[in-house]
Amino acid sequence: MPSKKKIRHQQYTTVNRVRLIRSGKQYFDELLQLINKAKESVHIQTYIYNDDETGRMIAEALKKAVQRNVVVHLLADGYASQSLSGAFIADLKKSGVQFRFFAPIFKSKYFYFGRRLHHKVAVADAKFALVGGINIADKYNDLPGKPAWLDFALFAEGEIAAPLCVLCWKTWNGYPLKMELTPCEKQKLLFDIPEPERNEVKMCRNDWVRRKNEISKTYVTMLRNAHTQVIMLCSYFLPGKIIRKQMVQAIKRGVKIRVIAAGRSDVMLAKMAERWLYAWLLRNGVELYEYQENILHGKIAACDDRWVTLGSYNINDISAYASIELNLDVRNNTFAQQVRETLETIIDENCIPVVPGQHNGVKNIFSQFMQWLSYKLFKVIFYLFTFYFRHQR
Length: 393
Hints:
The protein is α+β, with helices and mostly antiparallel strands and 393 residues long. The chain has helices at 4-10, 25-37, 53-67, 86-94, 161-172, 183-186, 214-225, 241-252, 268-283, 317-322, 333-350, 365-384, and strands at residues 16-22, 41-46, 71-77, 98-102, 106-107, 111-113, 116-117, 120-124, 128-132, 152-158, 200-207, 212-213, 229-234, 256-264, 287-295, 299-303, 307-311, 323-331, 351-354, 387-389. It has 12 helices and 20 strands. The strands form 3 sheets. Strands 7, 11, 12, 13, 14, 15, 16, 17, 18 and 19 form a 10-stranded mixed beta sheet that branches. Strands 1-10-9-8-2-3-4 form a 7-stranded mixed beta sheet, with helices on both faces.
Protein backbone atom coordinates (compact mmCIF):
# COMPACT_ATOMS: atom_id res chain seq x y z
CA MET A 1 0.00 0.00 0.00
CA PRO A 2 1.55 3.37 -1.00
CA SER A 3 2.47 5.73 1.79
CA LYS A 4 0.62 9.00 2.39
CA LYS A 5 3.74 10.84 1.30
CA LYS A 6 3.69 8.96 -2.02
CA ILE A 7 0.00 9.69 -2.57
CA ARG A 8 0.57 13.42 -2.06
CA HIS A 9 3.52 13.36 -4.45
CA GLN A 10 1.39 11.74 -7.18
CA GLN A 11 -0.90 14.78 -7.20
CA TYR A 12 1.86 16.76 -8.90
CA THR A 13 2.20 16.85 -12.66
CA THR A 14 5.85 16.58 -13.61
CA VAL A 15 6.30 17.77 -17.20
CA ASN A 16 5.79 21.51 -17.00
CA ARG A 17 7.65 24.68 -17.90
CA VAL A 18 6.79 27.67 -15.70
CA ARG A 19 7.53 31.39 -15.47
CA LEU A 20 6.71 33.98 -12.82
CA ILE A 21 4.67 36.82 -14.35
CA ARG A 22 4.21 40.22 -12.76
CA SER A 23 1.03 42.28 -13.07
CA GLY A 24 0.90 45.10 -15.59
CA LYS A 25 2.06 45.02 -19.18
CA GLN A 26 3.96 41.77 -18.69
CA TYR A 27 0.85 39.90 -17.62
CA PHE A 28 -1.50 41.27 -20.26
CA ASP A 29 1.07 40.71 -23.01
CA GLU A 30 1.19 37.06 -21.89
CA LEU A 31 -2.61 36.82 -21.79
CA LEU A 32 -2.93 38.32 -25.27
CA GLN A 33 -0.30 35.93 -26.60
CA LEU A 34 -2.11 32.98 -25.02
CA ILE A 35 -5.38 34.05 -26.69
CA ASN A 36 -3.83 34.93 -30.05
CA LYS A 37 -1.97 31.62 -30.37
CA ALA A 38 -4.92 29.44 -29.35
CA LYS A 39 -6.03 27.02 -32.05
CA GLU A 40 -8.94 25.17 -30.46
CA SER A 41 -10.19 26.62 -27.17
CA VAL A 42 -9.79 29.44 -24.65
CA HIS A 43 -11.24 29.48 -21.14
CA ILE A 44 -11.04 32.65 -19.04
CA GLN A 45 -12.53 32.77 -15.55
CA THR A 46 -12.10 35.84 -13.38
CA TYR A 47 -13.46 37.65 -10.36
CA ILE A 48 -13.40 41.17 -11.84
CA TYR A 49 -13.90 41.96 -15.51
CA ASN A 50 -14.32 45.67 -16.22
CA ASP A 51 -15.54 47.43 -19.33
CA ASP A 52 -12.48 49.68 -19.49
CA GLU A 53 -9.43 49.98 -21.74
CA THR A 54 -7.95 46.69 -20.54
CA GLY A 55 -11.25 44.82 -20.58
CA ARG A 56 -12.03 46.00 -24.10
CA MET A 57 -8.53 45.01 -25.28
CA ILE A 58 -9.00 41.44 -24.03
CA ALA A 59 -12.55 41.33 -25.42
CA GLU A 60 -11.28 42.24 -28.90
CA ALA A 61 -8.69 39.47 -28.72
CA LEU A 62 -11.37 36.97 -27.71
CA LYS A 63 -13.63 38.03 -30.59
CA LYS A 64 -10.76 37.62 -33.07
CA ALA A 65 -10.10 34.16 -31.64
CA VAL A 66 -13.71 33.21 -32.40
CA GLN A 67 -13.17 34.35 -35.99
CA ARG A 68 -10.34 31.77 -36.18
CA ASN A 69 -12.88 29.09 -35.10
CA VAL A 70 -11.52 28.96 -31.55
CA VAL A 71 -14.19 28.08 -28.96
CA VAL A 72 -14.12 30.82 -26.31
CA HIS A 73 -15.71 30.68 -22.83
CA LEU A 74 -15.64 33.69 -20.50
CA LEU A 75 -16.96 33.30 -16.94
CA ALA A 76 -17.04 36.30 -14.59
CA ASP A 77 -18.20 36.54 -10.98
CA GLY A 78 -21.77 37.79 -10.70
CA TYR A 79 -20.96 40.24 -7.91
CA ALA A 80 -17.54 41.67 -8.69
CA SER A 81 -18.22 42.01 -12.43
CA GLN A 82 -21.78 43.29 -12.14
CA SER A 83 -20.81 46.68 -13.61
CA LEU A 84 -20.52 45.07 -17.06
CA SER A 85 -23.22 46.62 -19.20
CA GLY A 86 -25.82 44.70 -21.14
CA ALA A 87 -24.45 46.21 -24.34
CA PHE A 88 -20.92 44.95 -23.61
CA ILE A 89 -22.18 41.43 -22.89
CA ALA A 90 -24.49 41.43 -25.93
CA ASP A 91 -21.57 42.42 -28.17
CA LEU A 92 -19.48 39.54 -26.83
CA LYS A 93 -22.25 37.04 -27.43
CA LYS A 94 -23.05 38.40 -30.88
CA SER A 95 -19.38 37.90 -31.77
CA GLY A 96 -19.55 34.26 -30.69
CA VAL A 97 -17.90 34.52 -27.28
CA GLN A 98 -19.76 32.31 -24.83
CA PHE A 99 -20.26 34.49 -21.75
CA ARG A 100 -21.80 33.71 -18.39
CA PHE A 101 -21.93 35.12 -14.87
CA PHE A 102 -21.00 32.74 -12.09
CA ALA A 103 -24.05 32.20 -9.87
CA PRO A 104 -23.89 30.65 -6.37
CA ILE A 105 -26.04 27.82 -5.10
CA PHE A 106 -29.12 29.79 -3.93
CA LYS A 107 -30.61 32.59 -5.97
CA SER A 108 -33.81 34.54 -6.50
CA LYS A 109 -34.81 37.27 -8.88
CA TYR A 110 -33.00 39.82 -6.73
CA PHE A 111 -30.10 38.23 -4.85
CA TYR A 112 -27.48 35.49 -4.66
CA PHE A 113 -26.44 33.55 -1.61
CA GLY A 114 -23.32 31.42 -1.79
CA ARG A 115 -19.62 31.63 -2.46
CA ARG A 116 -17.97 33.90 -4.99
CA LEU A 117 -15.78 32.93 -7.91
CA HIS A 118 -12.49 34.51 -6.85
CA HIS A 119 -10.01 32.56 -8.95
CA LYS A 120 -8.30 34.02 -12.03
CA VAL A 121 -7.34 31.50 -14.69
CA ALA A 122 -6.86 31.40 -18.45
CA VAL A 123 -6.28 28.16 -20.37
CA ALA A 124 -5.62 27.67 -24.09
CA ASP A 125 -5.85 24.33 -25.93
CA ALA A 126 -5.24 22.41 -22.66
CA LYS A 127 -1.56 23.22 -23.25
CA PHE A 128 -0.94 26.69 -21.81
CA ALA A 129 -2.30 28.41 -18.71
CA LEU A 130 -2.07 31.55 -16.61
CA VAL A 131 -3.09 31.33 -12.95
CA GLY A 132 -2.74 34.13 -10.41
CA GLY A 133 -4.45 36.97 -8.61
CA ILE A 134 -4.73 39.42 -11.51
CA ASN A 135 -8.18 40.58 -12.60
CA ILE A 136 -9.02 42.00 -16.03
CA ALA A 137 -9.22 45.71 -15.32
CA ASP A 138 -7.13 48.85 -15.73
CA LYS A 139 -6.00 48.74 -12.09
CA TYR A 140 -3.94 45.63 -12.84
CA ASN A 141 -2.41 47.00 -16.05
CA ASP A 142 0.31 49.57 -16.73
CA LEU A 143 -1.32 52.66 -18.22
CA PRO A 144 0.20 56.13 -18.77
CA GLY A 145 0.75 57.67 -15.35
CA LYS A 146 -0.99 54.74 -13.63
CA PRO A 147 1.30 51.82 -12.82
CA ALA A 148 -0.36 48.49 -12.11
CA TRP A 149 -1.23 47.22 -8.65
CA LEU A 150 1.38 44.71 -7.51
CA ASP A 151 0.30 41.14 -8.22
CA PHE A 152 1.65 37.92 -9.71
CA ALA A 153 0.65 35.01 -11.92
CA LEU A 154 2.22 31.77 -13.06
CA PHE A 155 2.53 30.95 -16.75
CA ALA A 156 2.56 27.19 -17.20
CA GLU A 157 3.06 25.06 -20.27
CA GLY A 158 2.61 21.33 -19.89
CA GLU A 159 0.62 18.66 -18.12
CA ILE A 160 -0.94 20.98 -15.52
CA ALA A 161 -2.95 22.76 -18.23
CA ALA A 162 -5.26 19.76 -18.74
CA PRO A 163 -6.62 19.58 -15.14
CA LEU A 164 -6.99 23.37 -15.20
CA CYS A 165 -8.98 23.06 -18.41
CA VAL A 166 -11.18 20.37 -16.86
CA LEU A 167 -11.79 22.61 -13.85
CA CYS A 168 -12.86 25.43 -16.18
CA TRP A 169 -15.34 23.15 -17.93
CA LYS A 170 -16.78 21.90 -14.63
CA THR A 171 -17.07 25.43 -13.25
CA TRP A 172 -18.72 26.62 -16.45
CA ASN A 173 -21.26 23.78 -16.27
CA GLY A 174 -22.01 24.25 -12.57
CA TYR A 175 -20.09 21.20 -11.29
CA PRO A 176 -22.50 18.50 -12.54
CA LEU A 177 -22.52 15.23 -10.63
CA LYS A 178 -22.11 13.31 -13.87
CA MET A 179 -20.25 14.81 -16.79
CA GLU A 180 -18.93 13.32 -19.99
CA LEU A 181 -15.25 13.59 -20.80
CA THR A 182 -14.37 17.18 -21.57
CA PRO A 183 -12.49 18.08 -24.77
CA CYS A 184 -9.41 18.56 -22.56
CA GLU A 185 -9.46 14.89 -21.57
CA LYS A 186 -10.20 13.34 -24.95
CA GLN A 187 -6.75 14.02 -26.36
CA LYS A 188 -3.56 12.78 -24.76
CA LEU A 189 -0.95 15.49 -25.19
CA LEU A 190 2.78 14.97 -25.03
CA PHE A 191 5.13 17.81 -24.12
CA ASP A 192 8.72 18.02 -25.27
CA ILE A 193 10.19 19.79 -22.25
CA PRO A 194 13.83 18.97 -21.41
CA GLU A 195 14.43 17.47 -17.98
CA PRO A 196 16.38 20.48 -16.59
CA GLU A 197 13.42 22.78 -17.41
CA ARG A 198 10.74 20.60 -15.84
CA ASN A 199 8.78 21.65 -12.75
CA GLU A 200 6.42 19.70 -10.53
CA VAL A 201 3.12 21.63 -10.49
CA LYS A 202 -0.09 20.90 -8.61
CA MET A 203 -3.51 22.55 -8.80
CA CYS A 204 -4.99 23.46 -5.39
CA ARG A 205 -8.50 24.71 -4.65
CA ASN A 206 -10.54 26.09 -1.79
CA ASP A 207 -14.32 25.75 -2.16
CA TRP A 208 -16.43 25.04 0.90
CA VAL A 209 -19.37 23.73 -1.12
CA ARG A 210 -17.14 21.10 -2.76
CA ARG A 211 -15.34 20.44 0.57
CA LYS A 212 -12.04 21.60 -0.86
CA ASN A 213 -9.52 23.26 1.47
CA GLU A 214 -6.37 22.33 -0.39
CA ILE A 215 -4.76 25.79 -0.40
CA SER A 216 -5.28 26.21 3.31
CA LYS A 217 -3.57 22.84 3.78
CA THR A 218 -0.70 23.96 1.56
CA TYR A 219 0.08 26.88 3.87
CA VAL A 220 -0.19 24.70 6.98
CA THR A 221 2.07 22.04 5.44
CA MET A 222 4.53 24.64 4.19
CA LEU A 223 4.90 26.18 7.66
CA ARG A 224 4.95 22.80 9.39
CA ASN A 225 7.73 21.43 7.19
CA ALA A 226 9.83 24.56 6.68
CA HIS A 227 13.49 24.17 7.65
CA THR A 228 15.04 27.61 7.17
CA GLN A 229 12.69 30.29 5.84
CA VAL A 230 9.23 31.21 4.59
CA ILE A 231 8.46 34.49 2.84
CA MET A 232 4.85 35.49 2.18
CA LEU A 233 3.39 38.38 0.22
CA CYS A 234 -0.32 38.86 0.87
CA SER A 235 -2.72 41.70 0.18
CA TYR A 236 -5.13 41.06 3.06
CA PHE A 237 -3.05 39.22 5.65
CA LEU A 238 -5.32 38.13 8.50
CA PRO A 239 -4.28 34.55 9.35
CA GLY A 240 -6.64 32.47 11.45
CA LYS A 241 -5.72 30.51 14.56
CA ILE A 242 -4.37 27.45 12.71
CA ILE A 243 -1.97 29.44 10.51
CA ARG A 244 -0.85 31.58 13.46
CA LYS A 245 -0.12 28.45 15.50
CA GLN A 246 2.00 27.01 12.70
CA MET A 247 3.88 30.29 12.33
CA VAL A 248 4.78 30.30 16.04
CA GLN A 249 5.90 26.68 15.97
CA ALA A 250 8.02 27.27 12.85
CA ILE A 251 9.76 30.28 14.44
CA LYS A 252 10.49 28.22 17.56
CA ARG A 253 12.25 25.69 15.29
CA GLY A 254 14.45 28.50 13.97
CA VAL A 255 12.56 29.20 10.75
CA LYS A 256 12.80 32.80 9.53
CA ILE A 257 9.34 34.10 8.56
CA ARG A 258 8.94 37.31 6.59
CA VAL A 259 5.60 38.86 5.63
CA ILE A 260 5.10 41.58 3.01
CA ALA A 261 1.81 43.36 3.67
CA ALA A 262 0.14 46.31 1.99
CA GLY A 263 1.17 49.80 3.02
CA ARG A 264 -1.81 51.24 1.16
CA SER A 265 -4.86 49.08 0.64
CA ASP A 266 -7.97 49.30 -1.52
CA VAL A 267 -9.92 47.96 1.49
CA MET A 268 -9.27 50.26 4.44
CA LEU A 269 -11.14 48.02 6.89
CA ALA A 270 -8.81 45.14 6.02
CA LYS A 271 -5.72 47.34 6.44
CA MET A 272 -6.81 48.56 9.87
CA ALA A 273 -7.62 44.99 10.90
CA GLU A 274 -4.17 43.87 9.74
CA ARG A 275 -2.51 46.56 11.84
CA TRP A 276 -4.31 45.26 14.91
CA LEU A 277 -2.48 41.96 14.31
CA TYR A 278 0.92 43.62 13.89
CA ALA A 279 1.65 43.53 17.62
CA TRP A 280 1.06 39.77 17.72
CA LEU A 281 3.24 39.19 14.64
CA LEU A 282 6.13 41.26 15.97
CA ARG A 283 5.86 39.79 19.46
CA ASN A 284 6.22 36.30 18.03
CA GLY A 285 9.27 37.07 15.91
CA VAL A 286 7.77 37.61 12.43
CA GLU A 287 9.69 40.08 10.24
CA LEU A 288 7.07 42.43 8.86
CA TYR A 289 7.27 44.84 5.91
CA GLU A 290 4.79 47.22 4.28
CA TYR A 291 4.86 47.73 0.50
CA GLN A 292 4.95 51.43 -0.39
CA GLU A 293 4.90 51.86 -4.18
CA ASN A 294 1.25 51.19 -4.94
CA ILE A 295 -1.65 48.97 -3.92
CA LEU A 296 -0.43 45.47 -3.08
CA HIS A 297 -2.82 42.82 -4.41
CA GLY A 298 -0.59 39.73 -4.72
CA LYS A 299 -0.81 36.36 -2.97
CA ILE A 300 2.40 34.31 -3.12
CA ALA A 301 4.68 32.40 -0.75
CA ALA A 302 8.05 30.65 -1.04
CA CYS A 303 9.57 28.10 1.33
CA ASP A 304 13.19 26.94 1.69
CA ASP A 305 14.10 27.57 -1.97
CA ARG A 306 12.13 24.48 -2.93
CA TRP A 307 8.39 25.18 -2.81
CA VAL A 308 6.15 28.03 -4.05
CA THR A 309 2.40 28.61 -3.95
CA LEU A 310 0.65 31.45 -5.74
CA GLY A 311 -2.79 32.31 -7.03
CA SER A 312 -5.95 33.99 -5.79
CA TYR A 313 -5.87 32.86 -2.14
CA ASN A 314 -5.47 35.49 0.57
CA ILE A 315 -4.48 34.31 4.03
CA ASN A 316 -7.75 35.13 5.78
CA ASP A 317 -11.11 33.54 6.56
CA ILE A 318 -12.85 34.88 3.45
CA SER A 319 -10.45 33.01 1.17
CA ALA A 320 -10.46 29.98 3.46
CA TYR A 321 -14.24 29.63 3.82
CA ALA A 322 -16.29 31.97 1.64
CA SER A 323 -14.78 32.07 -1.87
CA ILE A 324 -13.75 29.71 -4.65
CA GLU A 325 -9.96 30.04 -4.80
CA LEU A 326 -7.30 28.59 -7.10
CA ASN A 327 -3.55 28.32 -6.52
CA LEU A 328 -0.73 26.45 -8.19
CA ASP A 329 1.98 24.80 -6.08
CA VAL A 330 5.40 24.48 -7.69
CA ARG A 331 8.24 22.31 -6.42
CA ASN A 332 11.48 23.27 -8.12
CA ASN A 333 14.59 24.61 -6.41
CA THR A 334 15.59 27.02 -9.17
CA PHE A 335 12.12 28.51 -9.52
CA ALA A 336 11.62 28.79 -5.74
CA GLN A 337 14.94 30.60 -5.43
CA GLN A 338 13.92 32.99 -8.20
CA VAL A 339 10.65 33.77 -6.41
CA ARG A 340 12.44 34.33 -3.10
CA GLU A 341 14.92 36.70 -4.74
CA THR A 342 12.06 38.59 -6.41
CA LEU A 343 10.30 39.05 -3.07
CA GLU A 344 13.55 40.07 -1.36
CA THR A 345 14.09 42.73 -4.04
CA ILE A 346 10.62 44.06 -3.31
CA ILE A 347 11.49 44.20 0.40
CA ASP A 348 14.78 45.99 -0.26
CA GLU A 349 13.52 48.48 -2.84
CA ASN A 350 9.82 49.02 -2.20
CA CYS A 351 9.09 48.33 1.47
CA ILE A 352 9.63 49.80 4.89
CA PRO A 353 10.10 47.53 7.92
CA VAL A 354 7.45 47.56 10.62
CA VAL A 355 9.12 47.77 14.02
CA PRO A 356 7.79 47.45 17.59
CA GLY A 357 6.43 50.72 18.92
CA GLN A 358 5.48 52.01 15.47
CA HIS A 359 3.14 49.30 14.26
CA ASN A 360 -0.07 51.11 15.20
CA GLY A 361 0.73 54.32 13.35
CA VAL A 362 -0.46 57.22 15.49
CA LYS A 363 -0.49 55.46 18.81
CA ASN A 364 -3.49 56.67 20.75
CA ILE A 365 -6.50 55.02 22.32
CA PHE A 366 -8.84 56.00 19.49
CA SER A 367 -6.63 54.56 16.70
CA GLN A 368 -6.06 51.33 18.63
CA PHE A 369 -9.80 51.03 19.26
CA MET A 370 -10.55 51.51 15.55
CA GLN A 371 -8.00 48.84 14.60
CA TRP A 372 -9.47 46.42 17.16
CA LEU A 373 -12.99 47.17 15.90
CA SER A 374 -11.91 46.67 12.28
CA TYR A 375 -10.40 43.31 13.18
CA LYS A 376 -13.62 42.18 14.86
CA LEU A 377 -15.75 43.47 11.99
CA PHE A 378 -13.60 41.75 9.37
CA LYS A 379 -14.04 38.42 11.15
CA VAL A 380 -17.82 38.90 10.98
CA ILE A 381 -17.93 40.17 7.41
CA PHE A 382 -17.05 36.86 5.82
CA TYR A 383 -20.37 35.47 7.10
CA LEU A 384 -22.11 38.23 5.12
CA PHE A 385 -19.72 37.97 2.18
CA THR A 386 -21.76 35.21 0.57
CA PHE A 387 -24.91 37.38 0.21
CA TYR A 388 -25.22 39.96 -2.54
CA PHE A 389 -27.80 41.43 -4.86
CA ARG A 390 -28.18 39.81 -8.24
CA HIS A 391 -26.87 41.46 -11.40
CA GLN A 392 -29.77 43.01 -13.31
CA ARG A 393 -29.14 42.33 -16.98
